[in-house]
Amino acid sequence: MSQRRVVVTGLGLVTPLGVGVNTVWKNLLQGQCGIISLADREAFEKLPVRIAAEVPKGSLEEGKFTASEWLDRGDDRTMAKFSQYAIAAARQAIQDSNWKPETDREKQRTGVCIGSGMGSLEDIVETAGSYAKGGPNHAVSTACTTGAHSIGDAMRFIQYGDADVMVAGGTEASVHPLAIAGFARAKSLASDYESNPTEASRPFDSDRSGFVMGEGSGVVVLEEYEHAKKRGAKIYAEIKGYGLSGDAHHMTSPPTNGQGAINSMRRALEIAQLSPADIDYVNAHATSTPVGDAAENNAIKTVFDGHWDKINVSSTKGATGHLLGAAGAVEAIFSILAVKNDILPPTLNLYEQDKQEFNLNYVPLVAQERKVRAAITNSFGFGGTNATLCFTKV
Length: 394
Ligand SMILES: *[C@@H]1O[C@H](CO)[C@@H](O)[C@H](O)[C@H]1NC(C)=O
Ligand SMILES: CC(=O)N[C@H]1CO[C@H](CO)[C@@H](O)[C@@H]1O
Description:
Order of helices and strands: EEHEEHHHEHHEHEHEHEHEHHEEEE
Largest sheet: 10 strands, mixed
Number of strands: 14
Bound molecules: 2-acetamido-2-deoxy-beta-D-glucopyranose
Strand content: 15-25%
Helix content: 25-40%
Radius of gyration: 20 Å
Number of helices: 12
């Protein structure tokens, strides 16, 4: 089957590093970090972990988030925050793509695929509260459609002809005491950094001790290549590969050889019809947990055996924390920008590593220019999912 090619024509970001693709990318390359202390907030007082990566509040002009700048009157007060972030990111991406479907056919050929890992904990908690007090009510959360899955599935919809344009990504806003308490209990979070929160997320570093919860949204516009060319759209990159796997090993810790990650990376390369030698940059999932980073590192070394000295690997979670259901989409955008601009975003807080095991090029601390023909980005989830996306220059 001759396959329809899919390209990226629009980007939108709401992250702890700011709002708007230019702002976020600039802050990421400058080595800024979006993690802050929550110690002064009453709701977090009794928790063992009081840091998080929050979307900064303020005007868009300052690169920050104010709901009323993105939503219709009323919605800024009633709509759950994770939906607000998704709308803000989607609006940016659609405007950036300059795609304005007018005919019925054009509208029918344009789709949406945006997921969230947790949905709105705040609303679930409040609804549960009003249920106890008031009357019948209902709260549902369909977990874990990760950002990477949304983008990968959207690519397939276009390849198989179900749509010509897809608005795809992920969103999350679960910096909530309940979520922090849960992940802290699972011993997944970095806990000792209240006085120096920007140092808490340290992928691949010897002192890494867990991830930092983050929030935000990433949305892309994907488009069939000929469709994009015909209307003279700006093209960022081509999305070539999408791999999925699950290793059904343990609820929170991966097998140490990273077999699930190996499978998803290999599958993405196979679909893209590329070999490891064609890849210049690996945007790692690495969340800064001792076991997870080590397993992914092993997996990357296995997949890129013989090419270790030619690839660069970085994890942007040192700067953004872990955006859970949004991470895959936000990091897909960072990978797209690396391919488009030939710049590698850095791994923050990587000062010291076990040189025997962690012997790749991790772009420590500072961004670096290099030609990036193709990049892959990994996304792994607790209890069920691994995904890898592959982007190339057109
Ligand atoms: C990126 O990889 C190249 C090898 O291809 C290496 O020479 C360079 O030092 C790496 N950069 C960083 C910052 O790791
Ligand atoms: C290396 C890695 O993080 N693998 C993940 C892949 O997905 C499984 C679930 O099937 C997770 O348990 C792993 O953490």
